[in-house]
Structure of ATPase ASNA1 homolog:
Amino acid sequence: MADFDDSDLPEPSLKNIIDQESLQWVFVGGKGGVGKTTTSCCLGAQLAKYRKKVLIVSTDPAHNLSDAFCQKIGREPTPINGFDNLSAMEIDANDDMEKMQESMVESSGSEDDSGINALMAELTSSIPGIDEAMSFSELMKQVQSLDYDVVVFDTAPTGHTLRLLSFPTILEKALGKLMELKDRFGGLIGQASAMFGGGNPGQMQDMMLGRLEETRSIINKVNDAFQDPELTTFVCVCIPEFLSIFETERLVQELSKFGIDSHNIVVNQVLFPEKDAEELGEWLAENTASLPKEAQEICAKMMARKKMQDKYIGQCFDLYGDDFNVTLMPLLDYEVRGVDKLKQFSENLIDPIDLEG
Ligand SMILES: Nc1ncnc2c1ncn2[C@@H]1O[C@H](COP(=O)(O)OP(=O)(O)O)[C@@H](O)[C@H]1O
Ligand SMILES: [Mg+2]
């Protein structure tokens, strides 16, 4: 490494995100259990040092922001203890849909909700994802009105993540379906609602149409913003194992296909990131010979793991090192839970680990 000039290579840290003040939307994604939530919380904590108002949003149905912060995080932005400018929220598409239905029934002035419920049920069963799309657009409307400087999204595992980008297509389909329903069953839902004391026939469909059109316009604007590298970037989190590196490559390719900027990879749970496997192995071989057999076995197991990790970290730098900021995060001896531990761990995202050790 010594005779190789690496001064032009991207820095091995997430400092570039802190420095890029234009960023409004930062996505954090990767396989389950690799450390997305931990990374989102740590990045949020670091951003909070330099931005006026920061929000972390979990869109992963398996929410664990509450576990990470050791604090109940609600459906609305919840201020995080130990910060005066960091909030977090967990969103739930089912909950949001129910609220939306209620608000539509309320604003129709009708006491009966059978019409709108039938319409909603028809739409959600024939257009998968419409509930998520509508709930996401509500979230974006809310978040945009609260003027956060930057929002960090703790996303669902890969596969799910890029669903966001298919929302425009889903909305087009939903609008088409609604038109079709209106033509075919126009009177029916109206009649049903009239029969149960509901308001004006057709009013529900029109209201729904209005909602969907509003949703479409928000989603289209949001997608443009997500495809603007000045505003949006995607941080890929992985661990140094075959499947995770493989998945990361798929994610990186998919992001590039959809025109979403990504130039950061966090490799989490790295054993002794500052040490070289070969040197460490030699040192251990020399210095553990007199230890009891069990102790030697424990060291050998650790070394085997370390060697495997180094192989995948090497592959990661070969694949991405020229274009991506590749940040190594150490495997700790304890879970990264609670504000103090998160704050402390988050320093590793910014201060590159000295690989020359
Ligand atoms: N570098 C690390 N060292 C030790 N424990 C970690 C590390 N990163 C994450 N963890 C722990 O691993 C578990 C899973 O991490 P989490 O961030 O929730 O993953 P994800 O959101 O990708 O499912 C959590 O209990 C977390 O505290
Ligand atoms: Mg998580």
About this structure: Residues 32-38, 64, 268-269, 329-332, 335-337 surround adenosine-5'-diphosphate (ligand 1) (CB under 6 Å). The beta strands are 25-29, 54-58, 78-79, 86-90, 150-154, 232-238, 264-270, 325-330. The chain has a mean pLDDT of 88.
